[in-house]
Amino acid sequence: IYEYKEHLYGGDSVGKHNGKLSKLVDLLYFITLDYNNLPRIIVDGIKLYFGYNAVYVVYQKNAGNKYSICELYGDNTYARDHMLYKEIWVEEDVFFQNLARMVNESKTFGKCAWRCQDFGCSIEEFWETKLGKAIRKGGFGYKAAITCGQPWHNMQHAISLYKPEEKGDYTEEEMELFNCIGKLFAIIQHHYREKIETEQLKNLLNTYITNMSSHFCITNSQFQVIFQTNSFALLAKEIFDGKVLRNTLMPLVAQMDEDKHLGKMTREYESITGKYLMQITSFNMDNNYIYSYRLQPLYMIEFEEIENSTARGPENSLISGKDEICFKASDAYSLTRREQEVLLLMLEGLSTAEISENLCIAETTARTHISNIYKKLEVNNRAQATAKILAELGPAEGFHQQII
């Protein structure tokens, strides 16, 4: 958390927020005690350290951009009322109606906390709506919502916070605090998603490894590669001529999602070196897996050669020099997937700010990755890192000059 404090509070204002920062650290520590029960432990922590009743709600996106509540965690009273007013919720709840925009704006502008006034509806006007009258009668009081730009597949995760009506509306200071909790929520979800994907990946590999070809890749529901063989990366680059594979996958996977019985899809592609059959397989955890909010599909993409037209020679090699170096460096220095991406951009000559923008991460995070790369390479700066990688792993002298 201290590493992310500038991201949470911003430069000069860090000092005056030390008390809240300490509570955020306490909240994070509390969550790590029972990380496997993330939704419940988050709302328990918010109540314990900040005094607000909370419900963690997972929304399922349906046809026509409509949402329905699929999971509820937290205070039993508020979770119960969520279900009691579920039908009214769908029709009238301003948060529910604006959920897609909330998530998009939280990702774009970093605003994570919302209340009725944010949507042009005052608290007084809200109490006059059908939903407002129902929840006021049920003792909800004032409501704010926290979201973050980390949707999993077609699900949205949000935290609803409540306080009694007699305590009045939320202050600007409280809304600022909720924004900080939302940013912390985004950080936690990012790392939690990686943890869940690792569990799924182990299951997938244990189940299917004997049937896999050597040219395969596994992506998460956001089409981020979480595992791939080197040969797959080379073939993907050749077949799709450097274009992003994700643009090819998205429409195919969307078609698979529409037809729930369609677990596999195949397409044929041709390149200068031959013809290949690409197969996409959707992989889900077992039905007896107890946390349904974790059931985000992984996708396995395989290439099978069906006709080899030419042998690969140096003139039509599938791999570029920079990519080859990164593959070698990953093995030689135990670089993580993200560190490998950062290293490639470093070799491209991008600055830390440009790396941050390219990978959609905070500059502090980019600096941390670069620092970790230096430690693993046992160097002190970018020039030394480049020189060491080129000396130990670089291909030809001509390429050395190209990089330099």
What does this 3D model show about the protein?
It is built from 18 helices and ten strands. Helix 2 runs antiparallel to helix 3 (38-50), helix 13 (321-333) crosses helix 14 and helix 15 packs across helix 16. A hairpin with a 7-residue loop joins strand 4 and strand 5. The chain has a five-stranded antiparallel sheet with strand order 2-1-5-4-3. Strands 7-6-10-9-8 form a five-stranded antiparallel sheet. The chain has helices at residues 5-9, 18-32, 38-50, 76-84, 86-92, 94-97, 99-109, 123-127, 130-137, 172-208, 230-239, 245-258, 321-333, 337-347, 352-359, 363-377, 382-393, 397-403; strands at residues 53-61, 67-74, 113-114, 142-147, 155-163, 216-219, 225-228, 264-271, 274-283, 298-308. The protein is globular. By secondary structure, it is α+β, with helices and mostly antiparallel strands.
Salient structural properties:
about 400 residues; alpha+beta; globular
**SS content category:** alpha+beta
Report the order of strands and helices: HHHEEHHHHEHHEEHEEHHEEEHHHHHH
Largest sheet, spatial ordering of strands: 2-1-5-4-3
Overall, the morphology is globular
The profile of the biggest β sheet is:
5 strands, antiparallel
Rg calculated over all Cα atoms? 24 Å
The tally of helices reads 18
Share in β-strands: 15-25%
How far apart the termini lie comes to: 37 Å
Q: Are there runs of 5+ residues with pLDDT below 50, and where?
A: 309-320, 395-404
Q: Could you report the average pLDDT, rounded to the nearest whole number?
A: 76
- Fraction of helical residues: 40-55%
DSSP E strands, number: 10
